[in-house]
Amino acid sequence: MATPQRTIAEYTRFCQTLAAQDTDAVKIRVVQNHRNPHHLRAFSVRLPADEAVASARRFAFIDAPKYDRL
Fold it and tell me: Which of 1, 3, 26, 43 could anchor a disulfide with 52, C-beta 3.0 to 4.6 Å?
């Protein structure tokens, strides 16, 4: 489901919410569209350095494939 474009702050909070739901997860894979491509930069902009590094290690962002419309 596509959602409206989000700010870096909203994206970071979303990722923190995902991480809090499963504290035992080693790697969290997030498949995202090309509309909100914040990736790891969101962590370094919004979080303290040590927390940003820990979050960056925990998440893997995967871009959904682009499909041309006919």
Answer: 43
